[in-house]
Amino acid sequence: MPSTVVHAAVACCLAVGLLGEFYDRRALVFVLAVVLAPELDTFAGWFLDGAHRALLHNLVFTAVAVPVLLWDTTRESSWLRERFGARGVRLVWVGLFVHTFAHMLFDWSHLDGINLFYPITDRFFNLDGEAFFSTADGFTQTFIEVTTDPETGQQSVDAGQGGTTGNTHVSSPVDPSPDPEPQNVDRRAPIAVQGWQLYLIALGAFTLVAKKLQSPLPSKRDDD
Amino acid sequence: MPPTLVTVAVGVLIGVALLGPAFDWRSLALVALAAALPNLDAAVSLLVPGVTNALLHSAFVPAAAAVALYYDTERRESSWLRGRYGWYGVRVAWVAVAAYAVAGIGLDLFNIDSAAALYPLSDRYYSITGKLVLSTQEGVVQTYVEWGDGWLEVASPGTTETHHVETWLNPSAGADGDVARRLRFVDSGWQLVVVIIAAAAAPAKRLLDGGGD
Question: Does residue A134 form part of some domain?
Answer without folding.
Answer: yes
